[in-house]
Amino acid sequence: MPELPEVETLRRDLEREIGGKRVKTVEITGTGAVQHLTKKQFAERLEGAKIASVGRRDLRLVAKLDTGDLLVFTLEQGGHLRRQTPKDERVKGTKMIVTFTQGGQLRAIDDESHLEVALVAAEDLLTEFPDLAELGPDPVDEPMSWTAFANLVVRRKGTKLRALLVDRTFVAGIGPVYADEILHAAGLRLDRDAGSLSTQELRRLYRAVVETLHEAAKHRGVTLGAAGFTDLAGKPGGWMGELQVYERDGLACNRCRNVVTKIRFSGKPAYECLSCQV
Fold it and tell me: For the stretch 249-268, what's the b/e string if a residue is b when 16 or more beta carbons lie within 10 angstroms of its beta carbon?
């Protein structure tokens, strides 16, 4: 499922493709995607609105409208957004089609009913999505010093590093793929206690978080599996070849040439090099 780099890729695409455009019509063709409002209420409220800007809160895309509303897309569990034309074939799983006055469409596609779309007043965002109020800092959207980061880590003494990284109240947007990649980049074992890190190790972890997420976003994320992430044009992520450990079990570690190992962590698969991660 998409993590911060993939959702940030979509945000940048949307800002470029639909920022400043006005909605002409809204057609809701499927069921289950629209939250909080009826299909009719949703369409009537969105039609005529202008997309002022497109932001991201954790793994949600949040488009600010000139009406004071926010258009919120949740794709964490699946689904895709496509920039298309009215002449393009309507594929299976198309849930919503937004047509703009200047031509072109934005389509929300999900044949497994995971994608969610909501339209809320700006002041109601945290009421409708209370988890957003509990988020930790965003390493891509909010620059943070290494000392501030280190303070957050040491406060979580007793928590294993892998569990810490995927806790979005600690840092926003990180899931299993980038948690494993970050810890490999930092040379740290997944089961290390957050309170056990030296100053040098804290610096390495901070650098790994920032550099891994920025580089992955720069290269438009990763795509895992047939139904994995694709960008606004339907293309897969370009960072696949940079993965060092995730789903590379049995292959040689690119750093030390020992074998990457697949383990169970909190009941789910995780990946590390037991030789060069300490």
Answer: eeeebeeeeeebbeeebeee
